[in-house]
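Z., the sequence and structure:
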Amino acid sequence: MNTQELRKLGLESLATELKTAEEHFFRLKMQLAQGSLTKNHLIREARKNIATIKTLITEQTKG
């Protein structure tokens, strides 16, 4: 999801998205450790996605 779509979600939905993104990031790290990950850029994208979701959660809780 892009940032505009994420901004429309509520806190509960963002928390669900965050959990999903963190699980995806964990799976990517495991694939990298095993040597089966061929698209290394996906790790950076996953980290960026997690950071975006956390930022949006903070924005919504503070105001």
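Residues 3-62 form a domain with the Helix Hairpins fold (CATH 1.10.287.310). The mean pLDDT is 96.

Let me know what you think.
H.
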